[in-house]
Amino acid sequence: MRLGIIGLPQSGKTTIFNALTGQNLPTGFGGSGQMEVHTAVVPVPDERVDFLSALYRPKKTTYATVTYRDIGGLESGMGEGGLSGPLRNELAQADGFVHVVRVFADDSVAHPQGSLDPARDVAILDGEFLLLDLITVERRLERLKDEWTKKPDTRRQNEIETALMERLRAQLEAERPLRELALTADEIKLISGYGLLTLKPMLLLFNCGDTVVPPGELLNDDRHDPAHMISLPGKVEAEIAQLEPDDRALFLEEYGIAEPSASRVIRLSYQLLGIQSFFTVGEDEVRAWSVPVGATAVEAAGVIHTDLARGFIRAEVTAFEDLRALGDMKAVRAAGKQRLEGKTYVVQDGDIITVRFNI
Ligand SMILES: Nc1nc2c(ncn2[C@@H]2O[C@H](COP(=O)(O)OP(=O)(O)OP(=O)(O)O)[C@@H](O)[C@H]2O)c(=O)[nH]1
Ligand SMILES: [Mg+2]
């Protein structure tokens, strides 16, 4: 799953990318306004995996991952003619966005709007995305009108899609993001190829200077869920990410920080994408796997290996918290806490799963 880090020029996107990924890309003026993309795959910190790894002492421990893309090149006004080319593709292919908003004051860093105003900056990028989606929807509606006369045999389908597109248009004209609409799985499938930007989940990341201001004091906009906002000191976080693990632990202890905000952002982005983790355990490997919320046992088996889905018989399932409470699998079984589940069982976050299969 892929998250695009976006924001106005000089908002601190690359700084945040460095903080999240531990990379050390150059920041500051230079790339500004240019379409430029950096990518990194990042393990999702999960103390449950740490616990399982300590218990099983496996040869290998594998965390779930998310991919971040630092996407430069978005600007105020870019939505007007619609986007094309690599920037459009890049945005369309993201599963969600981390929108970096500048809060830090620093006279040596130019602000593209000339002044500090986080709420205004959020509105600017939101407005560009709404406009870009509106252009996409209107183009599609024109196309459907064309096809109505040219392809009479697909009129039923055409009607269905036209009605849906008109619903999307009304939403966008009311300046509301598409992600707020209650769409059916079929409807989502129908529009999934159009790269609609406001349909994707978005995390607002307020890049503060040394004084961290809570999101609620920076923005009051019901189009953004407070659970999908976070404030952090971007530059400090990027510096923490550069420390060796031992120095980092010392630094955090000294400042009384339980955990770097970057770790929280990574976990938040994982949740933002509507995915959750289940675990497989053993002497060889303890591993977190990602499935969409609502996935079934056979779908989870298929994530591990297609053979496991094909030959699926049953899944042995233990809730992680039961294992943590009881200490080991033997105690879990003795307490009757290990269940046998069938193909249609809906996987819960933190399930420890062993698939019984036969091929
Ligand atoms: N004082 C201060 N400066 C920051 C902070 N975060 C980023 N900066 C500085 O702001 C400038 C821009 O940061 P970048 O991370 O390059 O911003 P960007 O959004 O990637 O910029 P472009 O890719 O050029 O659009 C750099 O000089 C950073 O050092 C912060 O929290 N405090
Ligand atoms: Mg940058």
Question: How would you describe the overall organization of this protein?
Answer:
- The chain is 40% helix and 21% strand.
- With 359 residues, the chain is of the alpha/beta class.
- It has a domain at 294-357: Roll (Ubiquitin-like (UB roll)), CATH 3.10.20.
- A 6-stranded mixed β-sheet has the order 2-4-1-5-6-7, sandwiched between helices.
- The radius of gyration is 23 Å and the shape is flat.
- Bound molecules: guanosine-5'-triphosphate and magnesium ion.
- The site of guanosine-5'-triphosphate (GTP) has 21 residues, from helix 1 and helix 7.
Topology (SSEs and partners):
Elements: E1 2-6, H1 13-21, E2 36-43, H2 47-56, E3 60-62, E4 65-72, H3 85-93, E5 96-102, H4 118-150, H5 155-173, H6 185-191, E6 202-208, E7 229-233, H7 234-242, H8 245-254, H9 261-272, E8 275-280, E9 285-292, H10 297-304, H11 306-310, E10 312-319, H12 320-326, H13 329-334, E11 339-341, E12 351-357
Parallel strand pairs: 1-4, 1-5, 3-9, 5-6, 6-7
Antiparallel strand pairs: 2-4, 8-9, 10-11, 10-12
The structure holds guanosine-5'-triphosphate (GTP) and magnesium ion (MG).
